[in-house]
Structures are given as C-alpha cells and as structure tokens.
Amino acid sequence: MKILVANIGSTSLKWRLFDFANGGERLLHKGGFERVADYPKAIEDCLAQLRDAGALAGESDLAAVGFKTVIAKGVTGCVFLDERVLAAMEAYNGIAPAHNPPYVTGIRLFRERLPRVPLVGLFETAFYQFAPEAMMRYAVPPSWHEIGVRRWGFHGASHKYIAERSAELLGRPDVAERVRRLYVERGRTPVNDPPLRVISCHLGGSSSVSGIRNGIAIGNSLGMSPQSGLPHNNRVGDLDAEAIPYAVRTLGITLEEAQRQLSKEAGLKGLSGVSNDIRDILEAARQGNANAQLALDVFVASARHWIGAYLFEMGGADAIVFTAGIGENQSEIRAAICAGLQGLGIELDAALNEATRRTEAFISSAASRIKLMVIPTNEELVVARETKRLLETTKN
Ligand code: ADP
C-alpha cells in the first residue's frame, strides 16, 4: 500500500512517499519545491518525479494522499477530506491564518488532479482530544469558548510519534500499542501499572512541550493557535492579552501590522536581532552578543517553565524527550534546560549529551531518576500510518 504525504505551505510543496507492503514501512521517495508560484504545476511535477524515480506506476498505484492538516471547527482526528471537512477548516481560517488557507487550496487542487484517490487529513489537534478539560480551557466568557477560544494544542503528529517511540524504548509495549490505536479506540486500550509519564519537547522552528501520561497527552504549550507557548523562530509565543491593544494604541500601528510584527519580527529573531536560526544565535552569543544570549536565555526559561508545569501536573516523569531541529541537534540548549535539576532527579551525562545529534539516544547519567532522551521525530510517518489505519478500518 503506497501513501503519499504532502506537506503544503503557502509557497512550498514537500512530499514523502511510503510503502507499507508486506507489513513493512519503507520510505520510497522524498522531495519538494520552494517558492512555488504555480501550485497545479508543482503537483504535476511531484507526480512526474515519483513516476520517473520508479516509485509510483500511476495514480491507481496510490492508496491515498495524507496531509498534516492543522485545525478545523468541530473536526479532529484522522478523517477523509470531503467538502464538509474543508468547510470546517475554512471556518477556522482565523485561528491558523498561515496554515489553513493554503492547505484548503492545495487539497482542492490535489482532488482535481487525483479525483479517484482518497485524501486524508491528520489534524495537529488530534493528539489532545483526550486531554483533561481543565488543562484545555481558558477562563473566558462562554461566548468566547463557543467560537473556539480554548487551548487546542498542536504538533500532534510529532508528539504522538514521541509518545509511541519513547514507550517502546522505555520497555512499555503496552503503552506504545495504546498510542498506535489511540484514534481508533479513543484511548480505551488498557495499559499496565505503573503509569508511564513522558514530557515531550519539540524544539524547532516552532516549539512546543507536551505532557503525556500512559500515551495520552494531558496538554500542550501551544494554545488556541500556533502563536503561543515557547518563543518560536519568528513568532512571539505566550503574550499577555492586553499587549496587543496596548501596542496598537501606543505605537500607532494597525491590528494587522501588530499581528505581522508578532509573527514575522518576534520570537528568537526579534529578541536576538541576529537571526531566526538558533545556530546563528549561538554563534553570536559565543562572540559576546548580549541580545543573542538573552534570546537563548528566554527560550530556555520558557522550555523549563513548560516542562516544570507538566512535571508537577503528572506528579513526576519517567522521561523527558528532546526532538525536532533544536532538540535533536543542540546539546548546549539541552544542557541549559536540564541545568541544576539534580534535586528533581534530572541529570544529563555531559559526554553522551554532546555526542548525540539527530539520533536516538539516552543522554541521562546513571544517577538520573528521570531518563533524558533524544528521539528524532517523524511526523510524515505518523500521517502515513494513520492514513493507512483509516483506509483499513473503513474497508472492514
Ligand atoms: P520546523 O519546526 O520548521 O519543522 P525544524 O524542526 O527543522 O523546524 O527546526 C528548525 C530549527 O532547528 C532551525 O531554525 C535551527 O535553529 C535548528 N536546527 C535545524 N537543524 C539544525 C542542525 N543541524 N543543527 C543545529 N540546529 C539545527
């Protein structure tokens, strides 16, 4: 069974083609285009590349196209992308303005080009559908809650991958199986005692932390929109609700300009004044740039804030996992996040930490009660797996 996972940006198309033949999971092809002006042509060129590489014989060889969709009104989980679901995505364009409109456009173009191939969306909010209500509510008036002003949580595909893989690596196949079947059985797969508590830190171009108990997320640092939680590369992260009206009045800017500045000129880029890439910021900090150091310090403090919140909420943790561009590659950032926490049973092995880059590893010391791990994430594989599961469960 071949499943294409298409990652749609406003001007980019990236893809991975997976083959699940004979019980395996094989990546057959990956590629992408940046600065896309003509989207139908980009889709055509993607299909041509897959044919030319011998990865796909033709459309009939494709079981489905899966998309890492972000958010929709009243819809989550892994679903077929029919007109009802696309309308539900459009209804929340205002919550994810950078993501939903290009996705809806892109999905419609895929449907025109591949009318007989099922199109499936795995929503980034799906992993949080079983989180306790108290962790997901804002204390807003009911009318605000009704229009969707609540915590949704994002990066669901990534944190789900970490939930499953960490459970495997921690010797808990029962929890891994629950994560695998989460959207089919809605968290009802039984698990054994003791509970497995994992804190997953997705630190990358955008960052979030999730607490995961027995394979089920209890929350995520991203709230109503992908514009919250930790500072991101260009985006502000958490901000007081009064800040925007105050800045609009005081700086004499429009609401739209305030939103643009907070999403394009803020975050690590805004703080450091150097770059939105943590590698450049680390280099500038090494050379004595105080703003660069401040950006790193704010990022680390925010990561610790959220890790601490889930540690407390779950009454401890069995493991803290680092993933994504920064989490997988930056030992200095991991070290700063874990510094001085021996009293909580959190202690890195400095040599293991420094040696670990983009590979699965335990990086805690023998004395560390809480295991520290690096696990490279694989969001596209999660989309492909869930797409396959949806096809199989609807067939039966
Ligand atoms: P996204 O959230 O956009 O998918 P990634 O998870 O790829 O992003 O993370 C991108 C960020 O991770 C970059 O901005 C950079 O700061 C950092 N990063 C990516 N690759 C590396 C690397 N090889 N070494 C160090 N940092 C990296």
Give structural attributes.
six-stranded mixed sheet; 396 residues; globular; 12 strands; alpha/beta; Nucleotidyltransferase, domain 5; 2 domains; 17 helices
Description:
The chain has 396 residues and is an alpha/beta fold. It has 2 domains: 121 residues, ATPase, nucleotide binding domain (Nucleotidyltransferase, domain 5, 2-Layer Sandwich); 224 residues, Nucleotidyltransferase, domain 5 (2-Layer Sandwich). It contains 17 helices and 12 strands. The strands form 2 sheets. A 6-stranded mixed beta sheet has the order 3-2-1-4-6-5, with helices on both faces. Strand 8 and strand 9 form a beta hairpin. Helix 6 runs antiparallel to helix 7 and helix 12 packs across helix 13. The longest helix has 24 residues. The two termini are 16 Å apart. The model has no long low-confidence stretch (mean pLDDT 96). Adenosine-5'-diphosphate (ADP) binds next to helix 12 and helix 14.
Write the layout of secondary structure elements.
Blueprint: E1 2-8, E2 13-19, E3 26-33, H1 39-52, E4 64-67, E5 78-80, H2 83-91, H3 100-113, E6 119-122, H4 133-136, H5 142-146, H6 156-169, H7 173-180, H8 182-185, E7 197-202, E8 208-213, E9 216-220, H9 243-251, H10 255-264, H11 267-272, H12 278-286, H13 290-313, E10 319-323, H14 324-329, H15 331-338, H16 350-355, E11 361-362, E12 371-374, H17 379-395
Parallel strand pairs: 1-4, 4-6, 7-10, 10-12
Antiparallel strand pairs: 1-2, 2-3, 5-6, 7-8, 8-9, 11-12
Helix pairs in contact: 1-3, 6-7, 6-17, 12-13, 13-15
Bound molecules: adenosine-5'-diphosphate.
